[in-house]
């Protein structure tokens, strides 16, 4: 059996995951305005995801009724895990179909936020808050450093 080559014409205009990782088709070689737009989009989506996770996790950690419900219904963690896997597969299949991919990403974010809420409900509130603040500080510091730094990290495999 030899290698089978499939061109874009044979796939009726569909792109594959392999096409997503083609060389010379990345953001680092794009125009500066395209790169800045990409960064704004990624940071915007990530910020909304982190905000939703923080709010839902705080609700699960600081509301006694929710903490009690979570501790009495631990089967929900397995349900969240299964939903995460299903949503990841759906995101892979529908990655280029807007707005479906955004709806799936929103659902995935809420499932993951619920999972985080379950986990933090079993820990001491002060320890969770310290971890949250440390994570925010490190992430913010690295982000600021990245945006103001003149160093080129593309030799480390980013571009």
From TrEMBL:
Its main location: membrane. Pfam families: Bax1-I. It is found in: Membrane. Keywords: Membrane, Transmembrane, Transmembrane helix. This is Uncharacterized protein. GO terms for cellular component: membrane. InterPro entries: Bax_inhibitor_1-related. One of its GO terms (biological process) is negative regulation of apoptotic process. Belongs to the BI1 family. The keyword Transmembrane applies. PANTHER family: BAX INHIBITOR-RELATED, PROTEIN LIFEGUARD 4. The chain crosses the membrane at residues 42-62, 74-93, 102-123, 129-147.
